[in-house]
Amino acid sequence: MKHYGGMYYPDGEEHMIEWLKKNGAAVNGRVIYQWRKQTAVHAACKQFRTAVDIGAHVGTWSVNMASRFGRVLAFEPVAAHRECFVLNVTAENVELFPVACGAGAKLVSITRDPHNSGASHVGGAGDIEMIALDSLGLSDVDLIKMDVEGYEANVIAGARETILRCRPIICAEQKRDFAVKFGLKPTAATDALRALGMRLIQEIGGDFIFGW
User: Fold this and answer.
1) The dihedral of CA 85, 162, 207, 146: what is its sign?
2) Which residues contact 44 (CB under 8 A, 6 or more apart)?
3) What are phi and psi of 91, to 5 degrees?
4) Which residues contact residue 185 at a Cβ distance below 8 angstroms, ignoring those fewer than 6 apart?
5) Domain 34-211 is in which class?
6) Which tens digits make up the pLDDT trace of 100-139?
7) Is 212 helix (H, G, I), strand (E, B) or coil?
8) Helix, strand or coil, per DSSP, at residue 131
9) Has residue 28 got a pLDDT over 90?
């Protein structure tokens, strides 16, 4: 495990730490990843009941969600990431789920880059549980953040009922052709959100903030 800027990262991590050295923001004694994006997303929220962090990694978003929302539900399938998460995010209103999110229930593998833990993504069949967010029957979600390296449209498919019921702000990553490796269009995530009646509020560096 590595420690930088008040946060723990998996052994071998290089990419994110180098990014933080150049672009990180100092917030409350920590060097924070994607602070500009986080600030814009929180500014778009009208209520702060439940936030959902899909692709929670080591807690770079959850650590700040915890101080703003009544509760945070974080989903992270990689054990090495969760080991860092529980050290980084100690707030009692955060619940960490050791599963991936997708269109439905199945078992998957996660492909990992040893030097860039943020590039981890769903692989083929495996032994890691995947669920649909809809299976939880949530009723008070005000924010969903998803960063799953191209798998976002599948996450949206499994969260359709939750999204329509709760009408949350959604921040979805959609970069270059990440989705193509899953047989999806490069714009599959934003297309799916627009099909649900959502509108684009802002795009920041490949992350798209949608509202109603």
Assistant:
1) positive
2) 169, 201, 202, 209, 211
3) -65, 140
4) 179, 191
5) alpha beta
6) 999 999 999 999 998 999 999 999 999 999 999 999 999 9
7) coil
8) strand
9) no
Closest of 212, 203, 168 to residue 37, by C-alpha: 203
Sign of CA dihedral 163, 106, 129, 110: negative
User: φ and ψ at 152, to 5 degrees?
Assistant: -60, -40
pLDDT of 17 > 90? The answer is: yes
* For the chain, percent of residues with pLDDT exceeding 70: 100
Q: What is the pLDDT of residue 153?
A: 98
Which residue intervals of the chain are DSSP H helices?
15-23, 35-44, 62-65, 79-88, 152-157, 160-166, 188-195
Residue written as token pair 């979805």: 172
> Locate tokens 């990992």: which residue?
112
In SS3 terms, 181-210 reads as: HHCCCCCHHHHHHHHCCCEEEEEECCEEEE
Element (H, E) at 146: strand 141-146
